[in-house]
Amino acid sequence: MGEVExxxxxxxxxxxxxARYPHVAVNRLLLAPAPRSGECLCRSVPLFHxxxxxxxxxxxxxxxxxxxxxQGGLVVAGYYHANAALFDQSPGPLALKIAGRIAEFFPDxxxxxxDNQKLVPQPHVPPVxxxxxxxxxxxxxxxxxVMWRDWQELCQMVGALLEGRAHQxxxxxxxxxxxxxQNWTNQxxxxxxxxxxxxxxxxx
Length: 204
Fold this sequence. Notes:
Layout: E1 4-6, H1 8-20, E2 26-33, E3 39-41, E4 43-46, H2 55-71, E5 74-82, H3 93-105, E6 110-114, E7 128-133, E8 138-140, E9 146-147, H4 151-163, H5 173-178, H6 187-197
Parallel strand pairs: 1-3, 1-9, 5-6
Antiparallel strand pairs: 2-4, 2-5, 6-7, 7-8
């Protein structure tokens, strides 16, 4: 497996989702351009913070994200999971199940787990663990193959957005299903991020 890049926008929204619901587990889907040489996880869509294990709601979310992504030439290429416990960074049965399903359709899919101990406004190293599929198990991907754009600037942006309480405006599928007028694509938040990093650096 080759390099995988996590875009600025995808990473920022991972952090904001975890900050929005710091005492519970949260999960997201990661999207990439339709299969090509090299993989860039350019968008992340927040799923749940309270109904992670409800299969019917998960099916609805997966179908909607799949259709939405296809309209922009994107495919679901990864899964992100933050456990509720501070010291728990291992994928549980649910994370493995969802990631495994994604890998059935996108063999190079990644499973991204959050290291909650390192999830601070200005981390020295990325607080995520990227796992790759080895058939019967998921193993950490070589860190040299996980690419980041301007890590220091990215940390500053996350810190500024958290200070401005941007995470309070993040909408996930839980919120959308409670109130369908809330938009899980988070266009307003995307605009804030784009204003910081520019339209190209964030890979939308």
